[in-house]
Amino acid sequence: MTTIQNIAILGATGSIGASTLDVIARHPSRFRVAALTAHRQVDELANLCRRHRPDTVCVADAAHAPRLRERLAEAGVGCRVLAGEAGLVEVASLPEVDCVMAAIVGAAGLRATLAAARAGKKLLLANKEALVVAGPVFMETVRASGAMLLPIDSEHNAIFQCLPPFASGELVAKGIRRILLTGSGGPFRSRSRAELHRVTPDEACAHPNWVMGRKISVDSATMMNKGLEIIEARWLFGASPEQIQVVVHPQSVVHSMVEYADGSVIAQLGHPDMRTPIAQALAYPERIEAGVSSLDLFRIGHLSFEQPDFERFPALNLAYAALRSGGAAPATLNAANEIAVAAFLEGRLPFLLITAVIEETLAGLPASPLATLEDVLAADARARVRANQIVTRLKAHAA
Ligand code: NAD
Ligand code: MG
Question: Which of residues 278, 313, 348 is at a domain's end?
């Protein structure tokens, strides 16, 4: 008989939040929803509270807290309402919470995700940007508190499943040669650069295999998502940039692979459905139903693999370069990407200039060392100011 796990979901109204609640609802004797958070989607959040009855709820944009209270009162739901970033941090550290799903999008999730690590929780990490911006600080926090860090990103969850159990330390010492990080290539895999000039936000968000939030969908289209994942793998698995190879795999069935010194390559396969990695991490080290059907290999027929095209997708090179520069460079890369992607989604920046903004931001700012959370936040803020200036200038040129 397993004891019930109390779960907090940071970013409950998003795509990962919905998949997490779906898996939890299949196992009422194992999991209980203890707390939910959202940015400002109070109607959706109140609906989730009605269905899942958490003890605590938090709206990150404090201006929306009164409306959330109203909605909860109308629905007859009595739960404690918190607000603002301090509320998110409190949710992540609640003593009654055993497990935190970190599924806020972007560096906005950093403080709360780090708070869960500091509190020594079982931490399910979807919010890759938190690890990209704060890598060494984040991993040191996990080490010091003894938090159990489980990757949710499908590739990193796959790699985790392909590694020897309880592995820690350098890859080479574990007899591992390389990590093969797969990616579908996104919606524009076979388009020429000339064809990419005029693509719209809706085209960029129409991913061939995965249903995701809009920011990560655009990241998949530029392949910056794979770039962020290279950096994520570096910190999660102690891999050097040379040990991480990106493999384009359009079917999204092999979610990543680990190659050993003896030539063995171990892969994890499955449908492109985030409920699989979420269930793997929620139940770890046991296995539970996730609502995902069996993989029909006869219908899939064949799997193919291609080299990534670094010229059409410069985001990959930018990520490798930021990782090699170290210090503040990954935080700068991430902040510039968030600013450029938001500008693209709002129709203020053409698709091909997203990586141009990132490249110029990186070139103009030093890769100063990051020792504390304050250093990370300062680097993030500096890069946002610079990237916004570049977006404004490029927009004026285009007009
Ligand atoms: P989403 O946009 O669907 O949801 C984001 C959630 O974060 C929402 O609940 C939103 O309310 C909340 N949020 C947004 N801005 C916030 C802010 N400033 N403060 C507090 N909360 C805020 O995103 P998603 O697709 O669910 O992705 C979430 C994270 O998981 C991202 O880091 C993404 O890279 C990662 N991820 C997602 C997938 C996927 O399939 N969706 C796969 C792998 C990794
Ligand atoms: Mg991924």
Answer: 313
Q: How far is the CA of 200 from the centre of ligand 1 (A)?
A: 21
Kindly state whether residues 246 and 158 are assigned to the same domain.
yes
Q: How far apart are CA 152 and CA 47, in angstroms?
A: 25
Peptide bond into 285 cis (omega under 30): yes
Report if residue 319 sits inside a domain.
no
Q: What confidence tens digit (pLDDT) does each residue in 205-262 have?
A: 998 888 899 999 999 999 999 999 999 999 999 999 999 999 999 999 999 999 999 9
Q: Looking at ligand 1, which atom is closest to the CA of residue 88?
A: 20
Report yes or no: 159 and 232 within 8 Å, Cβ to Cβ: no
Ligand 1 site residues (CB inside 6 A) read 11-17, 38-39, 41, 60, 103-105, 108, 126-129, 153, 210, 212-213, 215-216, 274
Task: Please tell me whether residues 145 and 162 are part of one structural domain.
Answer: no
Q: Provide the domain limits for residue 135.
A: 5-151
Atom of ligand 1 nearest to the CA of 104: 7
